[in-house]
Amino acid sequence: MCELLGMNCNVPTDICFSFTGFQKRGGETSIHADGWGIAFFEGKGVRLFLDPKPSAQSPIAELVRNYPIHSLNVIAHIRKATQGLVSLENTHPFVRELWGQYWVFAHNGNLPQFQPELYGGFVPVGNTDSERIFCWLLQSLRIRFNDTPPTRDVLFAALHELTDQLAGMGIFNYLLSNGECLFAHCSTELNYLIRHSPFNVAHLKDEDMTVDFSRVTTPNDRVAIIATVPLTDNEPWQAMMPGTLWMFHEGAAVAQLVTTPSPIKSLAEDLRTTN
């Protein structure tokens, strides 16, 4: 499976520290060696870096790691392929336009039976289930709301309904952002952390590196970090309950709704209960 990394903030922030640990998992401290990508929202634009090579050995990843791009919303992904070739077109995150906004999506999981009918506006370039899911989500939103973008809460309710239709088909962890909010669905495993004042020293799990955030922040800063597996070993990460959809805005978790749990996760929980 793949791993996800997301960031949502109330002020533009760089993700260099978190990405340093995340990058190591792409072929060095973990097995996710089938490509990586990261997308930064900057104003109305998106800065996108993709590489089908392992992130731990990628010169492009080194550039991202050392270049402090400041953004309110970031989505990153390291891939362990389940569907589709190891190629640039199959590398997450994926980007599309809807309602004059860029949308970014990355997926960790496998929905092999999901073969939706897709129209001209949203069709995959590659051959992954993840890109099919993304196209279907945006197509469904466009059909539902036509040319009028919904409010934040109405959008979250619609995403909940659409996510719930797929959640029972398989593993369906994802991150999605339109540059205003970051949406996170936990099917089997996702964790989050809110950094806020008073800020402390953080230490990475995958590399011996620390940052004293009190030296590089203001008392008003707030940053939400979402990751498949916690990136630091001395901060209060919170595990998301499997079968939940979350909305983050300005560095805070502002809404949460229950979805259908992954059948794979449910089976694993049943086995733990009976053994």
Description:
There is one protein chain. Helix 1 (16-24) runs antiparallel to helix 2 (59-66). The chain has 275 residues and is of the alpha+beta class. The two termini are 25 Å apart. It is built from 5 helices and 15 strands.
Which key features would you list for this structure?
about 280 residues, alpha+beta, seven-stranded antiparallel β-sheet, six-stranded antiparallel β-sheet, 15 strands, globular
Task: Write a compact overview of the structure shown.
With 275 residues, this protein is α+β, with helices and mostly antiparallel strands. It has helices spanning 16-24, 59-66, 129-145, 152-167, 263-274; strands at residues 3-13, 36-42, 45-51, 71-78, 94-98, 101-110, 171-177, 182-186, 191-196, 201-203, 210-212, 222-227, 238-239, 244-249, 252-258.
Q: Rough shape?
A: globular
- How many strands in all? 15
User: Whole-number average pLDDT?
Assistant: 90
Per DSSP, the total helix count is: 5
Strand share of the residues?
25-35%
Structural class: alpha+beta
Unreliable runs, pLDDT <50, ≥5 residues? Answer: 266-275
Largest sheet report? 7 strands, antiparallel
Radius of gyration: 18 Å
SSE order, one letter for each helix or strand: EHEEHEEEHHEEEEEEEEEH
State the end-to-end CA separation.
25 Å
How do the helices and strands line up, and which of them pair or pack?
Elements: E1 3-13, H1 16-24, E2 36-42, E3 45-51, H2 59-66, E4 71-78, E5 94-98, E6 101-110, H3 129-145, H4 152-167, E7 171-177, E8 182-186, E9 191-196, E10 201-203, E11 210-212, E12 222-227, E13 238-239, E14 244-249, E15 252-258, H5 263-274
Antiparallel strand pairs: 1-4, 1-12, 2-3, 2-4, 5-6, 6-7, 7-8, 8-14, 9-12, 9-13, 10-11, 14-15
Helix pairs in contact: 1-2
